[in-house]
Amino acid sequence: MSDSPRELGARIATRRRARRLTQPELSAASHVSLSMLRKIERGDRSPSDATLEALADSLDVDASKLRTGYLGTERRVHSALPELSAIIAGYDIRQGLPARHPDELAAAVGAAVQWRLGARYGQIAATIPSVLADAIRYVHTAPASKHLTAARLLASAARTADAVAYKYGSHNLSARLIDVLRWAADRSADPLLSCVAAYVRTETFFAARAHAVGLAALEQAIERAPAPTDRTKAAARGALHMRAAVIAGRAANADGAETHLQHARELAAQVKEGTYLGTAFGSDSVRIHEVSVAVSLGPKHVDRALQVATEWKPPAELPAERRSGFYIELARAQDWAGLQSDAFESLKVARAAAPQHTREHPWAREVAAGLRRHHRADAESLTHFAEWIAAV
């Protein structure tokens, strides 16, 4: 079900006002003519994909938040993947100077990291190839005093590029981008960056279903991690424990999963919920991982996931991707428990939080497909959702 021009225009106008922008200001920022913008907001004209993306970028939101079922993000991502592959083909070879000044590069990487946390994959795809290319050039040309800074920028850029590769099923490219991240960490000799690399590398074990060896790799990384003598170090170690708990669950190691969760809880008590080295960590994040662990362990542990969701809901301040993930996994638990209506509501909340993350998540698609086949309540709405998520 597509939006009417009036619905779409109203949504754009609401988002513009929330950003405290006037129509002339949004027109200037997006390079969409003022007369065209006024027609769009009134519902007299429906924007093209290019116009919608320009407006979305200027409103700091993914276009799928403006138009229901928007597929332009997928096209942006898939068109960027070959370019990313070419850029990292010779990442270890000096290739000249970056086009951006180091301060500009740091700002561009910082913006891309925020888009990753917000699951704004279309915005990432539009900019990350050139950002990653500059980060590679900078790591080869930075003065000795900036080696650590350059390595961290490259690691963040590679991780952000990996987010779109992994989420959109390009697992070979994802593994190569993780190699770039690990190379940057090794080059920096920064133990905290090595923690980040170990955390992200777990994706390759998830993709290969190599859960036992993935758990072993994380436990080795935890042993090498710095002692938690400050917030950042505590968060780095705690994030590894969270990740280890989930992969232990998928390895059917319930005792190991609970041990790692307990370590994560203890470390979360030392820090305020926040983003550390590009990863959200704190008591709220650990709560989300309790649901992840319960779902990873399978249907026999569904009560634990439902209990967490009864007692607690993710606050709006958490990154959108993490909130979306919580509701996707909760939907799976609710489906197992026979709570199909609740499962559908959770999927809708996940979509509202991070549309593209939800649309590309295999578990969200799996639950939606099952609901569509077996659950007849709200059938029309379910059909529209299943079509949007490509489950039918």
Which key phrases capture this entry?
mainly alpha, 434 Repressor (Amino-terminal Domain), about 400 residues, 20 helices, about 0% strand
Low-confidence stretches: none
Q: Globular, elongated, flat, extended or rod-shaped: what is the shape?
A: globular
Instruction: Supply the helix-strand structural class.
Output: mainly alpha
Please give the largest β-sheet.
2 strands, antiparallel
Distance between the termini: 14 Å
| Helix fraction bin | over 70%
Average pLDDT score: 93
Describe what you observe in this structure:
There is one protein chain. This protein is an all-alpha fold and 392 residues long. The chain folds into 4 domains: 70 residues, 434 Repressor (Amino-terminal Domain) (Orthogonal Bundle), CATH 1.10.260.40; 113 residues, no CATH class; 101 residues, no CATH class; 68 residues, no CATH class. The protein is 73% helix and 2% strand. It contains 20 helices and 2 strands. The protein has a two-stranded antiparallel ribbon. It is globular and about 60 Å long.
